[in-house]
Fold each of these.
Amino acid sequence: MSEYRIQGATGEWEVVIGLEVHAQVTSQAKLFSGAATAFGAEPNTQVSLVDAAMPGMLPVPNRECIRQAVRTGMAINANVNKWSRFDRKNYFYADLPQGYQISQLYHPLVGEGEIEINLDEKNPDAETKRIGVERIHVEQDAGKLMHDQHPTRSYVDLNRSGVALMEIVSKPDMRSPAEAGAYLSKLRTILRYVGSCDGNMDQGSMRADVNVSVRKPGHEFGTRTETKNVNSVRFVMAVVEYEASRQVDVLEAGGKIVQETRLYDPDKNETRSMRSKEDAHDYRYFPDPDLLPLELDDAFLEECRQSLPELPDVKRHRYEEQLGLSAYNAATLTADADTARWFEALLAEAARIQKKSEGEVAKASANWLLSELYGALNRLGKSLEDSPVGPEEGAELLALVADGTISGTIAKQVFEIMLETGDRAPKIVDEKGLKQTSDTGAIEAAVAKVLADNGDKVEQYKSGKEALFGFFVGQTMKAMQGKANPQVVNDLVRKALA
Amino acid sequence: MSIDLQTVKKIASLSRISVTDAEAEAMVPELNNILGWVEQLGEVDVTGVEPMTAVIPNHQRLREDAVTDGNVRDRVLANAPQAEHGFFAVPKVIE
Amino acid sequence: MTDLTDLTVADIRDGFRAGDFSAREVAEAFNANVAGAKALNAFIVETPEKALEAADAADKAKAAGEPLKPLSGVPIGMKDLFCTEGVQTTAASHMLEGFTPTYESTVSKKLWDAGAGMLGKLNLDQFAMGSSNETSYFGNVISPWRRGDGDTAALAPGGSSGGSSSAIAARLCPAATGTDTGGSIRQPAAFTGISGIKPTYGRCSRWGIVAFASSLDQAGPMARTVRDNAILLETMAGFDPKDSTSLDLAVPQWEAGLSSNLKGKTVGIPKEYRPDGLNAEISAMWDRGIDWLKDAGAEVVEVSLPHTRYALPTYYIIAPAEASSNLARYDGVRYGQRDLPDGAGLQDMYAATRALGFGPEVKRRIMIGTYVLSAGFYDAYYTQAQKVRALIARDFEQAFEKCDLLLTPTAPSASFALGEKQADPLAMYLNDVFTVPASLAGLPAMAVPGGLDGQGLPLGLQIIGRALDEQTVLNAGLAIEERAGFTARPGKWW
């Protein structure tokens, strides 16, 4: 992997990055209560008495939240701990009703795993790097404070209080903004594949605490800062870049890096110290006495394993090796779980209609999806999710081309009409009479006319300018209004010129 | 281990209990007395002993993932010292 | 006609069914006693209307020939640590003054569903922290008992369930709920000449009970007879999916299983419970207890619980640690008191609110708990305490290889005068020396009265059983009750 170095006055510096990613676990109900988790509800409506920490209220864990964290661990080849337990992290804040967050410090649910990143997914020869994951644990989210509704008061909304989060802690294995960005993207891809987090960074479903330090290459780790709640891949990269150069400046000016919590301001593209939160934290972690140790049995773990989908790396290799797709196409199609799902639906349908293997229809399907469909969606400002044409309709169109009913050129026209009208390809081809012809009589007549009209070019062809062959074919196709079978046209032109 | 006035004030602050200097001073011998007494536990040989995790052998049950609660805002806010527009209100927090 | 307030729970239940009296008559009799006993300060809130409401429902059901419930016609007192919907619940703290829960604790709901009526919310030590009921924000509870020599000194009813013990001994209610973290059911029962049982940890749901120390807190009944305890515990116990530490087990029919025949049972006498300097009257009472159990057919053996002397220090690390965290929720944001000095920010509001809302003993325990969990001390205190706790539990397991139950005194002394031990927290803590070990091990344990001391004050005996073996504990309690013939009651001076 290319080495990222900061050129300082005293020489080169290396940046060391670790990410703690908080990912909201996809579940109907909260981690320890039966209140809903949906985004955007009226304040304090998705709050149970447990979430509001009323006296005497007790937590009972949600199986699905545990299951999703276990599946996530399995997806990054991590050790799942059959014995784990919940600890209380004690601190006082208005968004934390219990006065403690139920988390896991001493015995997390998931131990060490790793994630393979590739700085250039589209380039099959680009180097890959494995980033270690230290642990994944499950914990409660806090509520939300609103500061702008009243001049002297802050308002507390506990709807998010108690929603399940996975904290995914990487090792300090990243060395450049690009690596940090690639790690976060890849992690998001995996979570979306597994279905354990929707990855909606703009809704706060995923956010990263970015730990950055700098050192002279080969030296000990430097003191790190932690920039909290960074909510996009781009911002994570910006934070690393900004923090690294800020730290180099401080160090080279003879200063020291303070271990502290910082906040990223996207508008100014800078980080600043959150001194207000620095008031001597001592979280007094201890095992939550309201909960028992979490012991997972083999059947539970087996179900987690069995229910894992094919993961992005495996899928990409399969697309290349078994479907014969290019490295670029395979990478593009597998970068997002939804795209891969759409592609596989298209592939299955295309193979079914054409009575061929998926391998035989893969290239045409991939090409159509990535160029025709993506082009159209881009133009319309839509995504695959709200595509006006579904995989089945797409497969029908591809089948018409494959069996020679229409040509590739006509297919583009048909697709445009599909997008406009919502009609299906066979109906459009029928109604508009777009079926291509293999009627040799009509084509022969057209060929004869083209040759007769272009006697000079026929002479040139015959004296060796063979490139003109394409011209005759093109003119014939034009005369046939695109509906002639290209293979038949080819054959007849060749015959007529012989 | 013996704690001093500074430590008592630090514990009070961590506990979010405001204490006057006089109260803190009174607590120094009181807490030292109790802590000195519990420290006799240090003499117990606990080699190879695991800390107790569950008082009575029992396993952690897991709930099914279903929305069974919530939509009780009135009950949640009923005892609030200050509630406005469906929120709990607290003195302005500067982050 | 007998005074209805002298009847036991079983008498009331059965007499009501037999038509000897109406439920309303019973409720009215107890309501009158409650109203006439302000001097004891046993109640924080009186709810005569609730008692009448339940009684009328019982009378109506009976008149209509509808099936009656297990506790139809029986009014009880509810320790003010149980959240009761629509009725102020304070844990005897200023912090929760005015707090009216919008929910009902599992245990209290089970009791109401079984037909019981509520006479009121009983006073207690603040957040159940105390052994003499002197830490309540709503004033001390006074024991109905007085020393025999004409002394009018106000005596402690024990704690933390001091309102419960005082009210039962004074015939203000036939039974009441208690909670026991380190002896809070057993020690007050012993001080007032009544019975009480702390069941196995996990038998009674903790849902809706204001938490003190989660790994120790356990609800249980208090009443004048062993049978009444069995009746109430059957209703209070049971699996609750809302409490992760609740035991998913069927509730035995303890009342039906009562038998004072202890043939085939072996009683262990832990030698560490008889330290040098044990009060001679306590020691003599214990010996009488041993004889009674022998008389009931039991074998008696000496056993050893070697880590007994470490139980109290262990408890005074674990309980405050858990409490310091459990009580963090009292911050003046969502319920309870709020103290917002002029210009105070959020964290200042917390500190002011908690300084105002908590009493001195609660603050002391929060501070100790905060300290033992704080950075650098956690392993030395908390982890060490949980290891010693495991050893204490192991002591019991090993003892129960040789015996089926243990007999010990309940408390190291009879009731003492209010104010006597208040100056020295440690002296107060030592009161729980015999009750704390079973709490740490989660075992069922019961206090039954054995007799009076030289001053005319009740002394109790404690029976500790194997986990889940409440039946043997109750049966041994019954054997003692039958032989002790404890009929003493405090003269009415209030």
Amino acid sequence: MIEFEKVQKKFPDGTEAVKQISFRVEKGEFLTLIGPSGCGKTTSMKMINRLIEPTSGLIKINDKDIKEYNIHELRWNIGYVLQEIALFPHMTIEENIAVVPEMKKWKKKDLEKRTDELMEMVGLDPNTYKSRKPSELSGGQQQRVGVIRALAADPDIILMDEPFSALDPISREQLQSDIQKLQQEIQKTIVFVTHDIDEALALGDRVCLMNEGEVVQISTPQELILNPQTDFVRNFVGERKSPWQTAVDVMVDTTKKHIVQEGTSYPEVGTYIIEGENQKYIGAVQNGEAIDLPPIQNDLHLRRATTVFDEYETSILPVVKNNILVGTLSYRDIVHYLQRQTKLENGVIHQ
Amino acid sequence: MSELKATFLDRQDMFWQSIWEHLQLSIISLLIAILIAVPLGLLLTRTKKIAEPIITITAILQTIPSLAILAFLIPIVGIGFKPAIYALSAYALLPILRNTYTGINEVDRALIEAAKGMGMSSFRRLARVELPLAMPVIMAGIRTSMVLIVGTATIAALIGAGGLGELILLGINRGGDIPLILLGAIPAALLAIALDNILRLFERTSAKSGFRSLATILVASLLIVTIPFVINGDDQADLVIGGKLGAEPEILMNMYKVLIEEETDLTVETKPNFGKTDYVFEALKGGDLDVYPEFTGTVITTLLGEQANSNVKQEVYEQARDGIKEAENMVLLEPMEYNNTYAVATTQEVAKQYGLESIGDLKVAEDKVTAGFTLEFNDRYDGYVGMQEEYGLDLTVKTMEPGVRQTAIKEGDVQVIDAYATAGYMVAYNLKVLEDPENIFPPYQGAPLVKQSTLDQYPEIGDVLNQLGGKITKQQMQEMNYKVDFEDEDAYQVARNFLKDNGFID
């Protein structure tokens, strides 16, 4: 879908923000770009919609050099969400959402329908909020509008530049889970820049970790944590807050030890998760009896996941990502993870 | 207050006319300034390298005194409405340009990036995002310019563009006629406040509607100022007669008008109160005027830049006539009898106190009297320079505007002034003219100055105007000036009565 080929960016002042990077973003993939400040992640992202032009190298969308597209049409097909939110303050919410569809000359009726649909999708009542000005909305609400403004003209690609970093923690968490739900519905190709490693690990199908203008490692969140390719990756990923705030994603047991296929004979002893067609979660059995276990999302924080364990008095839970069963999580997995995260030095425990 | 009311009632026609002219001048100038400065400001935000130099140029324009701009413009665009409009527009550029540039530049960078990233073209970004957001700042600039223009427009009267400045100038020329000055100054201030309030209303709505509110202002004001042009578009007179500021030129102009209209089929328009010699002369040269009354002495010293070769009236006239014919191809028709020369005048009391009869007598009172001279007189050979050389005088001199001298001598701030021999205040304050035995002041006889081409087109006016040749004595002129300046009689009526009483017309 999006392809970087030896893309380099040198600014007039001589700084080489991006050094010959190459990578691909697949169609429908959610890629998070992360790294310390000045690593070139934002520059890389802005080269996709040509807000910044590369010094050398090639960026292709659908196998076509982005310079061959009309620049405005290219941008109409790339939704853009900014850290500063940047809703136009003199326009109503409705007018803000209509900016790109208007340029694409949508019919008024289609536009109205689309606006209502999008607003409902992010939990904003169209009748209440449509004709309000951005300043009348809370920060979280504003960024919801920022997201649906980017989605309005149904682009194939969405770029998000630290979209939630200006929000308070509660709104941020809410929006993070909203964007995940949204992605399950809309399946866009998303490039998401962030400086928050937990956010990057929780949201990304893959995480692209950059440092000093180079891609250090690009892989799934699990891979990044389990197989860091350099010390930099290890340190950077390790720099997280408490392990309790880590998404369960990285602790998931993907060996399918505790998974049985639907329709086979279920073991008489122990708790097992049943997997159906297309890796769907079907249900669970305990000692041969069907029991009710809710699947947990792969991005759920560990602390919250443990409350689900308590609630259902179980020692194992199925983990899903985009409605697909990715593995299981047991108390044992959690303990192993916590063990890996802590070091024992002279009898003192360090995180 | 009652005096002001009386002056208002007396000059109601002129008052409303002046307000209207003032409004027209201001709005057209503002309009032109907006049409230049807003697009230019927008352009500069797209080409930032040249922005600062351009803004500096407009800042320099702003520092040139408005009077100087007018003087520069007269040789190029003539007199009247046009140069006034140009000068006022040039004046109004800076605040609008600077606010447009700043307003657009101060739009949040994130919004610009959002607009770009969403695929807006440069123009669309300007129209949909930058302009609406910068509109309040731009409007503030427009308001500043508007107040500036309404205030400065009072000087337009100096070059015959009319407006409230005409009342003020007239008031100053009359030796500080306070009610008349106020009648011009107060409405100018009120006009500025009123227009400012109207623009503020636009400013409030401008953030919402952006382009639309700007367009509304433009269209509305265009309508206001063009309607009168459409209504009275075609009353072009055959001849335009002008005159300097003051009663005497105005009376003479009207005499010319009456005579020409009575004795030929031509129609005449008068443009009184034209300020100084240079302005009127340039206007004649440029074709804005066809005739104006000038003095023989002035033609030689000011227009030709020569010295009078003689003190004999006829010889001075001939020198002036031949010189201006050769230099500018203009005809100085036959002069009238009276000699409105420079005179040195003092009060009867001072004359008695020091026994003053001639200019030379001032020597004895040199340390005790202060002289109030016009800038021009102070600097001329046929003025104070000559007085110093020929009479050996060394007076304490204060230079001042012509209109202020009479007040100064009346109040006793000065004891000696330079005066025009025929001026009305000579009668009013019973001033004594000191004799000039050395003849340093050449004769200043009034005569119509007209372009040869005008005479070729209307040969009949030469004979008509020459009827006044050798007529009108100094005393007659003084009396007429007194009637206009001090008894508030209408110049046209005074001129007409004189012509009638002396048998020029029936």
